[in-house]
Amino acid sequence: MSNKPNNEEEIDLGSLFVIIGRGFSKLFQFIGSIFKQLFHFLITILLFLKTNAIKLGIAAIIGAVIGTFLEFSGEKKFGSDLHVQTNFESARQLYNNVLFYNDLVKQEKHDLLAEIFKISDEEAQSLKKFTIDPVKNNNDIITSYDELILSVDTLTVKSFSFYDFKNAFTKYNYKVHVIQVQSTKNDVFSRLDDIIISAITENQYFNKLKELNNENLNRTDLILRKNLAQTDSLHKVYKDVLLEEAKKTNSGTNIDLGNGQQSNRELELFRATRELNKELKKVSDDKAEKSEIINVVSNFQPIGYEIKGISKNKAVQLSLALVAFTILILLLIQVNSFLNNYKK
After folding, report:
1. CB-side exposure of 261: number of CA atoms within 13 Å?
2. How far is CA 139 from CA 135, 146, 221, in A?
């Protein structure tokens, strides 16, 4: 009787192992079928390219020839970059202005461009493109998040993680931005940067923010310097007291005026001086970075660089475009043939 339960347990375990074995077998078959389909797809692509290699080669050659002709017959383009650091959330307005200039180029409003930038009509016609992009730096995100943590309460910080902050960080929040101008003339750029910047710096709203910020920084700097002078005076007083006590000790008079307590006060003064110096450095850094609405990191180069590269080469662009177009036509022909055969 006792052997009967053991036999049933052995049968159950055996069935379980069979089920597990079948499960693994199906899993491996599924994975194998995926690799088989991928291999079949790769072979199909290779066969398609092999069958149509001559047609694709002809398309590439024709595109390269036409692109080379256009490259040498067309006007050369030159570019120049202006790097700026924006303050008081003026980046959004700067982006809007640059996009406005680019829209004028697209609409061929050369007379308006000449009036805005105070250049000749010929120079205005040479302008081909205005773009602006942020110089992406992860340190900007980290610094901005640190400033947020210091400016809000603990509960707000807990409800707003760094991941959420990073996702909410936009191109306008980066510190440095690069404005690129393209032109068929290589010496027009030096007359553009002052106009682009003054369009922002002459804005009354930003000027008001700048004045208030500078007043606050100057007031803070004055208070910190006064506090630093007071701590220096106190430090000098404590030094004089220590010297007097040392003289009394040498003359045989031993009077304890709380040396331990006085040492603690000197240590506190030292810490206060260090903190004040740290605050002064921060104010100085803020003055250097935020005393202007826009800080120019680097101006437009007086002579622009020629725009080259594979991505800008018309021969490469047209060659790839014709190859892609030929592949699309061949695929449509094959699909049409399949549909006709499917009907039969």
Report:
1. 3
2. 11, 10, 26
Both tokens of 146, joined, read 């640190």
Give yes or no for a contact between 218 and 286, defined as CB atoms under 8 angstroms apart: no
What are the tens digits of pLDDT across the range 205-225? 888 888 888 888 888 888 888
Instruction: Report in angstroms the alpha-carbon separations of 318 from 72, 92, 145, 306.
Output: 14, 36, 46, 20
Identity of the amino acid at 120: S
Q: What is the pLDDT of residues 286-302, one digit of tens each?
A: 777 777 888 889 999 88
Q: How many CA atoms lie within 13 A of 187 on its CB side?
A: 1
pTM over 0.85: no
Distance between CA 169 and CA 129 in Å, rounded? 27
SS3 state at 182: strand
305 forms bridges with which residues in the sheet? 79
123/187 Cα distance (integer angstroms): 9
Residue 105 phi, psi (nearest 5): -65, -45
